[in-house]
Amino acid sequence: MLMSGSVSLYTDKASLYDVDYLSKDYAVEATFLQQLICNAIQYSPAEKPHLLDVACGTGNHLQFLQEMFVCTGIDLNSSMLAIAKQKIPQAIFQQADMTNFDLAEKFDVIICLFSSLYYLLDTALITRTLQMFVRHLTSNGMIIIEPWLTPDKYEEGKCAVQANQTANVSLTRLSVSRRQRDVALIDMYYTVYDGKNVTSFQDTHAFLLLPHTVLQGIFDSLGYATEVIMKAPFQERGLIVAKAK
């Protein structure tokens, strides 16, 4: 039976999220982050640094970071958090809005990956979110953000197809990129086979197109120096790393 409709992978179909990103190498990314953090901050070997993953999703990065850090994750989506809690029961997870949260704790490291910050389609909201990050950061801590593609690198009309399969489900995604002024729109068309039925649904993701200098300027106004890192495995979108001046 073929069914169609417009739904969100992050809410209605959260159980398919990990299937969709099965080919993403979270272990390699986590190893790179660990090395980056170890080279940047000092901490006692007897005590693990505290790390906050903002927009942690299903906890795929935290699975590999938990050995080195005391991990906390926040996400707006309760369905994603439920999956994360099953994977990493020893971590702390809380449903929260990145633009306005209070965890009553400060962290040595705050990460916000997979361009999650750029779902905020307003620089005022991004500024408020970075203020939240700074409020939750220790004095010698660091913030690591994976940005979205810059306007000069974003390609309109690009089509990509990806297929992943587990023992229980097969999922194919066709993505088509378009643009409305300073917003990148990715239309995603999914087909799912669960061994009995074939279903389909559509999801659209919107990201704010910003030069890195805009985010760096916001950090500068908050008293933070930044560095842009364009190295594998983050060579496509890069990382923006911020520390207090």
Automatic annotation (TrEMBL):
This is Methyltransferase domain-containing protein. Keywords: Methyltransferase, S-adenosyl-L-methionine, Transferase. Residues 52-141 form the Methyltransferase domain. SUPFAM superfamilies: S-adenosyl-L-methionine-dependent methyltransferases. It holds the Pfam family Methyltransf_25. CDD domains: AdoMet_MTases. One of its GO terms (biological process) is methylation. The keyword Amino-acid biosynthesis does not apply. It comes from Candidatus Falkowbacteria bacterium CG10_big_fil_rev_8_21_14_0_10_43_10.
